[in-house]
């Protein structure tokens, strides 16, 4: 699953995190994803998920100096996976320290974990990110850096890449990425309706897809869907819809 949960300090009126947060654990319990990459996650939002959904463990650090602020947190079901390794890097010319790169408006990170299935022993690399919403150069360079890190970290393991890329799916950057990794939305045997992933809490009516699940090293994608349902009578769980895919080793 990839899920931009909308940062919890945003002044969103009726859509403020405190008014909609109960929808997130309800959605997670209904969908029951084994792996989740979230974007715009503050520490208190991660703690809320772990408190309400104790079947998960998580890893992520804040993107700002002092490791505060938003995280690209990753969650996994602790009865299914063992954590082998983890890390965060910044999407900039100095990826080992909190920093902005390539004219980005905000500090941007990618989080990764190497997980081992407790049953069967297979391993995978999971990477989660949130690319800049202003600088096209930052998006392209950031994505290139992520692909370089995937090459160095994967070690032959299957790979999952999730995130809010802030790039529409007809953009050449995405079309090129589709040639290098497999786009779950396009490859799934079973698909839900072809709907937007970003709605701005229902204000945006045109089709706008900017959230993605990519993979490599898996046999196939069984299904893909955009989760556009309401939970706990909350009309919009976030300004984005979560997306979910089922992958087969």
Describe this structure in words.
By secondary structure, the protein is of the alpha+beta class. The chain has one domain: Endonuclease/exonuclease/phosphatase (Deoxyribonuclease I, Chain A, 4-Layer Sandwich). 22% of the residues lie in helices and 29% in strands. It is built from six helices and 13 strands. The protein has a six-stranded mixed beta sheet. A four-stranded mixed beta sheet has the order 1-2-4-3, covered by helices on one side. Strands 10-12-13 form a three-stranded mixed beta sheet. Helix 4 links the parallel strand 7 and strand 8. The longest helix is centred in the middle third of the chain and has 19 residues. The protein starts with a strand and ends with a strand.
CATH topology heading? Deoxyribonuclease I, Chain A
How many discrete structural domains? 1
Q: Which architecture does the CATH hierarchy give at level 2?
A: 4-Layer Sandwich
Helix content: 10-25%
Assess the beta-strand content as a share of residues. Answer: 25-35%
Shape: globular
Low-confidence stretches: none
Assembly category: single chain
* Structural class by SSE content: alpha+beta
Distance between the termini: 16 Å
Count of alpha and pi helical runs = 6
| Order of neighbouring strands in the sheet with most strands | 5-6-7-8-11-9
SSE string: EHHEHEEEEEHEHEHEEEE
The average pLDDT score comes to 98
Quantity of strands, as a count: 13
**By CATH's scheme, which homologous superfamily applies?**
Endonuclease/exonuclease/phosphatase
Report on the biggest sheet.
Answer: 6 strands, mixed
């Amino acid at each position: 699953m990839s899920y931009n949960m909308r940062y919890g300090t945003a002044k969103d009126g009726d859509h403020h995190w405190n008014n909609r947060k109960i929808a997130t654990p309800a959605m997670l319990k209904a969908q029951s994803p084994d792996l989740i990459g979230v974007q715009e996650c503050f520490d208190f939002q991660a703690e809320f998920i772990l408190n309400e959904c104790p079947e998960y463990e998580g890893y992520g650090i804040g993107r700002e100096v002092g490791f505060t602020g938003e995280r690209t947190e990753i969650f996994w079901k602790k009865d299914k996976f063992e954590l082998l390794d983890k890390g965060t890097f910044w999407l900039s010319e100095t990826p080992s320290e909190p920093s902005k790169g390539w004219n980005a408006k905000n500090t941007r990170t990618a989080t990764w974990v190497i997980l081992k299935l407790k049953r069967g022993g297979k391993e995978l690399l999971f990477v989660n990110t949130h690319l800049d919403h202003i600088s096209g150069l930052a998006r392209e360079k950031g994505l290139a850096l992520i692909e370089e890190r995937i090459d160095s970290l994967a070690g032959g393991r299957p790979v999952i890449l999730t995130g809010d890329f802030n790039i529409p799916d007809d953009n050449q950057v995405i079309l090129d990425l589709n040639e290098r990794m497999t786009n779950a939305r396009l490859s799934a045997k079973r698909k839900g309706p072809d709907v937007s992933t970003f709605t701005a809490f229902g204000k945006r009516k045109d089709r706008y897809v900017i959230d993605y699940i990519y993979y490599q090293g898996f046999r196939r994608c069984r299904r893909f869907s955009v989760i556009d349902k309401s939970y706990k009578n909350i009309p919009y769980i976030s300004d984005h819809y979560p997306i979910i895919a089922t992958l087969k080793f």
